[in-house]
Every structure is written in C-alpha cells, then in structure tokens.
Amino acid sequence: MASSSCGRAAISPAAARVVSADSAKAVRVALVNADNHLVALETAVDVVGGLNRVRHGDRVVLKVNTNSGDFFPYSTSPDVVRWFADQLAARGAHVVVGDRSFWGDTDTVGNFERNGIAAAARASGAKLVVFDEDEAWVDVDANLVPSWKPPVRIPKVIAEADHVINLACLKTHFITSVTLVLKNVLGIVHPVDRARPGNLRTHTQELIYAQVAEINRAWSPMLNIVDGYRALITGGPTPTSGAG
Q: Hey, is 41 helix, strand or coil?
C-alpha cells in the first residue's frame, strides 16, 4: 500500500434533504491547494459559501469514512472531523459523527477508536453514532433504488437531520477503482441490507456502480468533502484489501 501527500481539498455543496428521482440542483465546487491541511479545508469551505446555512439548534450529521480502524487516508482525518465539529458547535448546532464499517466488520466502535475519529468527536462534544441495529431506520422508496434488493433502509438520524456533511477520503479501491464521496454514502445503508445477496455482499461489478448512483439519487448531503491532503494511490480501501 502507498499514500502520497498532495495538499488538496475539494468540495461541492448541495441542499441537505431526501430528494426525489427527478430533482436536480446546480452545485459549486472548490479545489484548493495548500501546505497546511486545515488551511486548505477552511479555504475550500469558505469559497463555496461556508457553513452559513447552519442555524442555532440545527441537527448536523458528519458522515465519516470509517470502513476500518486504519488511520487517514484509509479513514476520515480526525483533524477534519474535529474542525467541522468545533465550527458547527460554535454555531449552536447539535453534532452527530456517524458511520458503519464494512458490513462484515462488526466492530465499528473499535474502528472509531483506532482511527482517531472517536477521540476527535469526544474532544468537540459531538455524539458518536454507529449506524447499526440499535438505531432507528427509515425505508428508501424502492423506485429510487431499482438495482437493490429491498428493503433499503437509511438511519433516521440521517433522514431527519437538518444538514449532513459527507467527509470522504481520496483513495483507490480494489473493486471500484476509486472510492470518493458517492461511494462513501454506502455507509448509511443498513448493514443487513448491504449484506443481502444481490446487493453489496459480493460487490458485483455489473451492479455496484448503479447501486452507488441510486443511493445518492435517493439521498443527498448539504456538503461533500473529498479530502486529498493525503491520498491512497494503490490497493485500498484497507491495507489488506484484495490480498490473497
């Protein structure tokens, strides 16, 4: 496995909401190069309008990438999690940091601890949530996800949030070639639904691209972050992916 430093952050915002199949909205995109990680992030966020839509009392979910317990760039940078959580808390928002690891990995809590995301959430006072059986779930309209075997459920905390910020990594993937903001959204799908034959249990290449597109059609974040300050350029999404 290899990773490279490139000092880059790219983002694109859209309204945080559950969207209909025919919904379309123009977005703004910023691409920023800087030697300092958080300077790049803050500059990019400012370029696209900042966090001005967040109001006091709003419920905001930071959808991180914690596919494993491996540190950034395999998982979302704890520094980025902390920066967003602190900025949002200063605006009076109620912040949740959430994800669910690969459907076959039942230790998302341990992964949060190992990759530093749990410590970042605690330091900022954010609530850490695993999208697992204990959470409340809502069904996605099957017409929006025709390539999936129903039901397809997403967390109620996501569906009812005022804003969701998608914090993706820039990394290669041994099945899909890359994993960025669109694929990061798969982490909100109920693990049982992900593991169902015909869905993501075998990552069938004939289906996975359509499945990724469809789940993003069914749901859209306020802000997408592709954090390329450090990037994975071979293998992935974990250090042992595709081994054997």
A: helix
Q: How many residues does the chain have?
A: 244
**How far, CA to CA in Å, does 207 sit from each of 176, 220, 231?**
11, 20, 26
The whole-angstrom distance between residue 108's C-alpha and the CA centroid of its chain comes to 14
Helix, strand or coil for residue 79?
helix
85-114: pLDDT as tens digits? 999 999 999 999 999 998 788 999 999 999
Alpha-carbon distances of 20 from 121, 194, 212, 235, rounded to whole Å: 32, 22, 16, 35
Alpha helices in the chain (DSSP H): 37-47, 78-90, 108-114, 117-124, 156-159, 181-184, 191-195, 205-218
Q: How far apart are CA 217 and CA 214, in angstroms?
A: 5
Entry pTM: 0.87
Strand partners of residue 2? 234
* Distance in angstroms (rounded) separating the CA atoms of residues 197 and 215: 17
Instruction: Let me know: does 154 contact 138? Beta carbons within 8 Å.
Output: yes
Q: How far apart are CA 207 and CA 95, in angstroms?
A: 34
One-letter amino acid of 29: V
Neighbours of 197 (CB within 10 A): 9
SS3 62: strand
SS3 127: strand
Task: Give the integer Cα–Cα distance in Å for 78 and 101.
Answer: 16
pLDDT digits (tens, 9 = 90+) for 36-73: 999 999 999 999 888 999 999 999 999 999 989 999 99
- Radius of gyration of the CA atoms of the chain, in A: 17
